[in-house]
Amino acid sequence: MADILVYVPEAGKHAAEVLTLARSLGDVTAIAFDDRSASLASEYGAAKVYRASAEGADDHFVDPKAAVLTDLARKAEPDAFLLPSTDEGKALAARLAVALDNGFLTDVTGLDAEGTATQEIFAGATVTTSKVTKGFTLATVKAGAAAAEPAPSEPVVETVEAETAEADKRVRVVERVDEPAGDRPGLSEADVVVSGGRGVGSAEDFALIERVADALGGAVGASRAATDAGYYPHKFQVGQTGTTVSPQLYVAAGISGAIQHRAGMQTSKVIVAVNKDADAPIFGMADFGVVGDLFAVLPQVLEEAEKRK
Amino acid sequence: MNIVVLVKQVPDSGLVRQLDAQLRVDRNGANNVMGELDEYAVEAALQLKEAHGGEVTVLTLGPDQATETVRKTLAMGADKAVHVSDEAVAGSDALATSKILAAALGRLEWDLVIAGAESTDSGMGVMPHLLAARTGAAAATGARKIEIDGDAITVEHQRDDGYDVLTAALPAIVSVWDTINTPRYPSLKGIMAAKRKTVETLTVADLGIDPGEVGAGAATTEVLTATDRPERTAGQIVTDEGEGGRRLAEFLAAEKFI
Ligand SMILES: Cc1cc2nc3c(=O)[nH]c(=O)nc-3n(C[C@H](O)[C@H](O)[C@H](O)COP(=O)(O)OP(=O)(O)OC[C@H]3O[C@@H](n4cnc5c(N)ncnc54)[C@H](O)[C@@H]3O)c2cc1C
Ligand SMILES: Nc1ncnc2c1ncn2[C@@H]1O[C@H](COP(=O)(O)O)[C@@H](O)[C@H]1O
What we know:
- Chain A is of the alpha/beta class and about 300 residues long.
- Chain A is built from 8 helices and 15 strands.
- The longest helix of chain A is centred in the C-terminal third of the chain and has 15 residues, at about 295-309.
- By secondary structure, chain B is α/β, with parallel strands linked by helices.
- In chain B, about 25% of the residues lie in helices and about 30% in strands.
- The complex binds flavin-adenine dinucleotide (FAD) and adenosine monophosphate.
- Flavin-adenine dinucleotide sits at the interface of chains A and B.
């Protein structure tokens, strides 16, 4: 069976998905820098866990962990090394690729036992299959590439304590500032996303979008026109330059459906649109669309949702 | 302070984009523009120059037509440019691209390199870290804010749920998101001035790299197939005549969302 290394950065859904995908390919050895990630690895079927610590890894950016992962990759000689496709995961993959002179793929949405990966390019319009042709299969895996399925195991745990070279303490993390989204689920992990666009018209009126999101138990998203206009904070932007979401339900209100917006939401399971322009491109991809004023349509939805509670 | 800005010419993301027969990004059939986020990188460099002095050099690796993108950066206010253009580069992967850009950086004097957080075509978002690995410079990527104080740089690294404050000593490589600034438009004066600015055009051999080390032949990844995703098709569209919200609620209820 193939040997698969997996970097588990935190005990979240995305990491669980990568572990599940890895398990379908071979024996999984997880690398975890904290106990919660280590226990996630055993919950999702890792055969072995490197419980690693690197001096200074918590308050330095990327480099200390990159050094540990490089050493472990050299030692384990895996058939594949998978990391979640996050900023950190991609940065680490890049460091590994140079250090090991190994090809790498980013944002893969699937991977088979032969090492053939699927990727989506051009805002999702084209699906490609690719392979690493030099070295092992080094890839970052996009959120949603597999459905996380627990498979509890009792992995062999090996402790790795690394010293960190001075050169790897170049970039210090002096402060971490959390700006939580309140009680709502995180945008990229939510099952329901309700997004508003320029058609919402003002920051105050985004309260209506928030109320619909809360009624559906979802996260709030926004188009770039809405974030640029200051109606809603930038970090909630959905699309090519924002977050990619793939929820069970995506509601687009007052959003025209520009190609760059569609890039971030077109793999949603069910898409609903409310727009007063019958020719808005968003209707071309909506499972259910209402041509109408969102200020008339959405309050009625809220009323009905309240009634059905 | 000397700054190098990395820009890449990409096919316009608002139009149809495709791969050519060799499964490479089709740059001939496309309308090519500067990578979206790279405009923010240029603006960030210009603002830092305005505050701290020094020179802004633009570096790009791409086919001859990428001169248009180079001209635009010079018209925005960059001082000079280096354009690496070579047939041998066609089909290069990210590793080879980083080898070439690192060699070009090695010929320049710089305290800071600014890139876009990700390119609009490949969207890998890895070049700054590949270059950091090759040059040994500090990498503080994904910035929504950059501050320079003497030879120290402070960056707000943007996360989905907040930000991290990173500090490093120069030389450093940073990349920027579109939250960092609003890029300027080239002025008429800028466009005229750009005509007198120097653009150095180099081949990979000029950089001391054997052409066999880059391009399709040296690629460490291979695209096997490409298929167009079937377009999503429209479902039921109703026009609101007083009942639109109720109809939508019925749909949501039928799908068990309410
Ligand atoms: C390189 C690049 C990257 C980009 N990245 C992104 C990205 O990540 N995400 C993104 O979203 N965009 C992105 N864009 C911008 C994108 O091209 C569009 O400009 C943007 O998505 C438009 O947002 P919108 O639909 O809210 O606004 P508009 O296109 O102005 O549409 C507003 C819609 O609201 C409707 N409307 C108005 N009032 C009402 C009402 N009362 N009730 C109902 N409907 C109403 C109108 O009919 C219209 O269809 C990017 C652009 C570029 C060039
Ligand atoms: N061929 C290139 N020439 C110059 N800069 C590049 C090139 N490719 C990537 N970059 C820079 O690196 C950033 C990230 O690119 P990528 O890793 O391809 O997503 C881009 O926004 C550019 O600033």
